[in-house]
Amino acid sequence: MKRILFLTILVMISIVAAACGQTESNGDAKGNSSSDETLVIYTNSASDGRGDWLTEKAQEAGFSIEIVEGGGGEIINRLIAEKNNPLADIVYGPTEADFNHLKDENVLSSYEIDWIDGIPEGSYDEDGYFYPLVSQPKILLYNSDIYSKETAPQDFTDLWKNEAFHGKYHVNINMGSNSNRAVIAGILVRYLDPEGELGVSQEGWDAIQAYFDHGYKTPEGEHFFGNLASGDVPISFIWASGVKGMNEEFNHQAGIVYPEIGMPTTVEQVGIVQNNPDKFELAQEFIEWFGSGEVQGQWAQEFGSLPIHKEALEQAVPEMIELGEKGHAQDIDWQFVNDHIDEWVEKIELEIL
Hints:
Blueprint: H1 6-17, E1 38-43, H2 50-60, E2 64-69, H3 72-81, E3 90-92, H4 96-104, E4 108-109, E5 131-142, H5 157-161, E6 170-171, H6 178-188, E7 192-197, H7 202-213, E8 216-217, H8 224-230, E9 235-239, H9 243-249, E10 255-256, E11 265-273, H10 280-290, H11 293-303, E12 306-307, H12 310-313, H13 318-326, H14 334-352
Helix pairs in contact: 3-4, 4-14
């Protein structure tokens, strides 16, 4: 699958919104495991209490887990480096492109799940090496006390093209961040040129140069959303499931930009690492529980995610319902991006930053 099925998810949201709204217990969620073995889980989605919440809920369901957290790129590189002596049992959070890379590197095991009927057809790997959990549009945000929908930027391109926004938007210089990479990809794919450097026209490289040059490179010790809420740096971007927690933590309801071209959108996946065969069944049982509509619905309520599972969508928070109604995914060939993103990042690190 080359393009993210965010539009399918939006259609499902509208269907779910018309439903009665009552959530029945999901029979797919096993919740009855009992094992002395500990599952080691690598993820880039354990921040802001997610890891603690999952560890506690898993323990209640009879699973013992140990979470190892890192950036998306860091997690993928570590899994590949360890593939001849794997330490992880499960990986969740990285994107479909990342998981395709792991699949190509023979890091993953194929498996089946019972909740496959709850996710859109074609949204999962046809060979069963990974399955989708959460859609993550990368959202352009603004301080709603300073800007209105009309005066705020209408797209990422406005940030460097309109001098009024120069120095007023956060840029992330962490090239290991999947969200940051997705935003960079969302800019560069507008300027693809087979004759250009690394498949991008000179206009595209000038655009990404201007994007970084005119943005505020948030230093360590400052929080990008804190700066947005205070008005010091009133424009930023965030992954979708971060909106709810940031709004609450900083007591500010940020405005959301809905670009006509759409939002760069990735989908978090989950897979089993080729490891101890004796733990394969336990890992599969954990994913049956974690990816079920019931548990993903609880996750969506707690952390404001935009879940893939249709039963979990019934429990999405209002911000995600609105996002689903008003937003759509940018049309991006993620396979092409995956083939070039490391080279793009290297050029940005060496020549632009």
